[in-house]
Amino acid sequence: MNTVTDFTTTQIGREKHDDLQDERARQWLEEHMGGKVLSMVRHLRWRPTWVVEMEVDGEYKKLFVRGPRGEEWINPVSMRQEADIHAVLERNGVPVAHIYHELEDAWAIVMDAVTGQIIIGTARDDRALDAVSQQFVEALVRVHRIPLADFAEIGLHIPEDPSDIALNHYRRCYDIFRRQMGDEVVPFMDFTWHWLVRNVPEYRHRGCGITGDAGQFMFDGDRLVCLIDFEQFYVGDPIADFSAMRLRDMIEPLDIADLIRRYEGLAGEPVDKYAFEYHTVGFNGVNGWLLWPTTVSPDLEQDYVAYLSFAIASSRWTVKSMVEIMGIELEDVPLPEESRPFAPMPPFAHLMDSIPKLKGQGRYAEYNEMKTASLAKYIDRWNRYGNWVIKQDLENVSKLLGKTCNDYRQAQRELSAFVAEVGADHDETLIQYFHRWLEMQEFLVRDCGPQTFLVGRDLKPIELPWRPGTAPEVRTTEE
Predict the structure, then answer these.
(1) In terms of residue numbers, what domain contains 202?
(2) How far apart are CA 324 and CA 429, in angstroms?
(3) What's the pLDDT tens digit per position in 432-472?
(4) Last residue of a domain, which of 64, 79, 112?
(5) What's the pLDDT score for residue 470?
(6) How much is the mean pLDDT over the chain?
(7) 69 half-sphere exposure, CB direction, 13 A CA radius
(8) Last-in-domain residue among 112, 132, 163
(9) Do 221 and 128 form a contact (C-beta atoms < 8 A)?
(10) Scanning 30, 168, 310, 454, which has its CA 20 to 30 A from the CA of 304?
(11) Total domain count for the chain?
């Protein structure tokens, strides 16, 4: 069976699968909510969702149905736990969407649909911005004060010592990464885990509920409506929630420094630079552990270049926080040069010119055209620069391992084993290598489509004391 037939058959199968999911959700809602579905609109996002309008006992209801990301995706929080987390938060006075039910086999959850804005920078004026910021921090403090027994009851692990508090979520996500990767490796992600283990902030003793992908909320005018998205919820260090906001802050400016000041005033707990940067490493590590496997075993419906670009960017930011803590300077990296291509160039140009002329059918036609065009551009860049990139990387790995490496995949496997064996005395050398490797990976996805908008972007610096009671300027590289 040829590739085109495979692709078409799979796409048709995908749409039939989605239609079956739509119908399954419709039937379940009418049976369990005791009403009639008036409309049901599916949204194509990182994970499937439906906005549903129903009539129940003569009353109009608007619901939000949230599904899983994909068959190959393993999330650190199950759908059932996500529903339970909503219930715990609501019971403790945290503004969240009310959960009604979880569908059979916990493949989706049903909650009230809420309306409002999601980007605080769009607040109507400074007074509204100030009010919503304050209410958001108050809600976050409320989350952090929920008794840990409430989370233990729904099956979340409750860490007890500083190491477990720091590594709780990261350990789970690294385990998922290793299971999903199979025989493939991304040595940097192994290094990230070992670096986190070696650099735990041992002075952080308090664990609490952590929203995970923090900084997500909806507001209306000058009123916070609810916090949203708890698929990475866990029990850990409260500072981790502020570290997680840094990625979102690039797209939806939050003014994290202002939020931290408000939090310190309300919670009475200082936020220090070391733990802040440490958990920035951890949060971006989580993104890498969950995203890199999608680049070696992708679902057909996923946007390969989008996932790859996000994985690379998250890994770059991981490096930046590592060197911030270690007090080292990253070396300049030369840009790749065009080299002998793997295949003749004209077919790639013809392919990229042809894709916009292909008129697909069905609900995913435009999406499929965009992601296929991006993938073609990425393959073309590998064709033009790949030989140079591989040659340089083999030379770099050979220097690290003290032996000549000629096979790229084997070299990466040996490097993965190497980073698991060595200690902190190799950290700076390895970080410089991974910095070069990531710059090359980012170069290859550059200009491959709108999904690569994170190329070249960095997290905003946040000035904080390095330890409670100290100022940034007194920190030294020996600390």
Answers:
(1) 120-445
(2) 15
(3) 999 999 999 999 999 999 999 999 999 999 999 998 655 45
(4) 112
(5) 56
(6) 88
(7) 18
(8) 112
(9) yes
(10) 168
(11) 2
